[in-house]
Design goal:
- By secondary structure, this protein is α/β, with parallel strands linked by helices.
- It has eleven helices and 13 strands.
- The protein folds into two domains: 236 residues, Rossmann fold (3-Layer(aba) Sandwich); 106 residues, Rossmann fold (3-Layer(aba) Sandwich), CATH 3.40.50.
- Strands 1, 2, 3, 4, 5, 6, 7, 8, 9, 10, 11, 12 and 13 form a 13-stranded mixed β-sheet that branches.
- α7 links the parallel β7 and β8.
- α3 packs parallel to α5.
- The protein is globular.
- 41% of the residues are buried.
């Protein structure tokens, strides 16, 4: 039985607990809404970017794009993240300041480290209590607003704009809450959203349901697309067209690796094979050597992975070139999207 089959079987066994989980998360949201459970407010506006399901909707690329776009408009921002899978035990971690990246993925977590690398000039901080990270950012830097990464369920910190990212094709995931499904909360949580961002084209039925569940939110559409290639470990940027016709062996440790493989095929890669690992997987040297061996056996001329995987690598194999596919966000109406964010936060 492969890992995917084991997870599916476990979810089926645990599905009777899903209504209980949904009830607890709904009650928790109500208690915060009624101010029975306390939440704290930072002196500067907070923009939360999150999702309804566990992983794989593209929060990190969207956060990066929002920061870039708002920075171009003159706003000074900082990113606050939980630092998932980072092993630092400090209450607050400064992953990057306005001049340099200060921590690696092992200490800070892969997503904060990736954001720090992609957003030079923007401080990135991690903490379990994001309020503390926000105070630290405001004490150290001149900040106009803060971006709360993966923050839709982080209700202890007040926010002025809640951006909810949904997969347009499966906006409600497996239609069941954890642990039997992949929903972090029930669909009624959409009522908290100020902006709903859809990836892909939802069915008319799903669009109507989203509009009904999030009556005060504006709907926006984005798409993710490959934009370029990094040659590792030098991080030298190459144009996307170099991949056309290139025989490559792909590997990834992300929530939905099939999307990555599809992007490679769409970019013209001659995909000679693929290997998937668990999300946030830390690669050992022997695993990378095995990938080189398998790629060579399949007559690949190189290995390719995601940028998120690349930041988790501390050693790089020899024998075949290694590349990382760069991913970008295209907004259907960026002007309106940014206008809605700025209206929500009052800047």
């Amino acid at each position: 039985m492969n890992r995917s089959s084991k997870i599916t079987l476990l979810q089926r066994l645990l599905s009777p607990l899903s209504p209980l989980y949904q009830g607890v998360t709904t009650l928790r949201a109500v208690l915060y809404d009624k101010k029975i459970l306390p939440s704290k407010k930072l002196p500067k506006p907070v923009i939360s970017v999150g999702n309804l399901t566990t992983g794989g909707t593209g929060k990190t690329p969207l956060v990066i794009e929002i920061v870039r776009q708002l920075s171009r408009q003159g706003l000074r921002l900082a990113v606050l993240s939980r630092g998932y899978k980072g092993n630092s035990r400090e209450p607050v971690n400064l992953v990057s300041d306005t001049t340099q990246v200060l921590m690696d993925a092992k200490s800070a977590g892969d997503e904060p480290c990736l954001m720090a690398r992609k957003l030079p000039g923007t401080p990135v901080l991690t903490a379990r209590k994001r309020y503390r990270a926000g105070l630290e950012a405001l004490q150290q830097f001149s900040i106009d607003a803060l971006i709360l990464d993966d923050g839709f369920q982080h209700l202890p910190l007040q926010r002025q704009a809640d951006i909810l990212l949904l997969d347009g094709e499966k906006p409600f995931g497996e239609k069941q809450c954890l642990p039997g499904g992949d929903l972090r909360e029930g669909p009624s949580a959409l009522a908290r959203a100020d902006l709903v961002v859809l990836t892909g084209r939802p069915s008319e039925e799903n669009r109507i349901r989203i509009e009904r569940l999030a009556p005060s939110a504006t709907l926006h559409s984005i798409r993710f697309q490959a934009t370029g290639v990094l040659h590792l470990p030098t991080e030298r940027e190459e144009p996307l067209h170099i991949l056309k016709g290139m025989p490559l062996f792909a590997f990834a440790g992300i929530a939905h690796p099939e999307r990555f493989y599809s992007s490679l095929i769409s970019s013209g890669v001659d995909l000679r094979g693929r290997r998937s690992f668990p999300d946030h997987h830390n690669y050992r040297r022997e695993e990378l050597d095995a990938l080189i061996k398998e790629g060579t056996a399949r007559r690949a001329e190189g290995l390719i992975t995601t940028e998120k995987d690349a930041v988790r690598m501390t050693t790089f194999p020899e024998g075949l070139p290694l590349y990382a596919l760069q991913l970008g966000v295209t907004m259907e109406n960026p002007g309106l999207f940014l206008q809605e964010i700025r209206r929500s936060i009052g800047v």
